[in-house]
Design brief:
Jelly Rolls, mainly beta, globular
């Protein structure tokens, strides 16, 4: 069978490579989706690197076609433009439309978030 424009990829949890990314107090585990989809999408798990740090990100927005966050474990609280404070916990999910101003206010030490975006690389704009 002919393979399409994307390729199959598998990432095993035991092979996770946690790296500092956009913010120094968070670690990111790239799930390989960016590579598999030639940059059309990205997926990574975000976790707290420094539990004692202030995880407040400041108001900002992302230039995306799609951005979804799923809480794998722990809890978090965000400020979302037009919604106010929103609390989420394990099993909760939210979608952030393009350009929606938001701010991470607090995350528990055990918080892990799955973020899926399109495109795979996107611009962050400070409010």
């Amino acid at each position: 069978m002919k393979q399409g424009k994307h390729k199959f990829i598998v990432k095993h949890a035991g092979d996770a490579k946690w790296k500092t990314g956009l913010r120094e107090d968070f670690e990111y585990n790239d799930l390989g989706i960016h590579e598999a989809t030639n940059g059309e999408f990205s997926a990574h798990v975000i976790r707290i690197a420094d539990p004692d740090a202030d995880h407040h990100t400041g108001k900002h927005a992302h230039v995306t076609d799609f951005q979804m966050i799923y809480v794998l474990q722990g809890e978090a609280r965000f400020w979302i433009e037009g919604e106010g404070e929103v609390s989420v916990a394990k099993g909760d999910c939210f979608y952030q439309p393009d350009g929606l101003v938001h701010d991470a206010l607090w995350m528990s030490a055990d918080c892990e978030l799955l973020e899926i975006t399109s495109p795979g690389e996107f611009e962050t704009v400070k409010d």
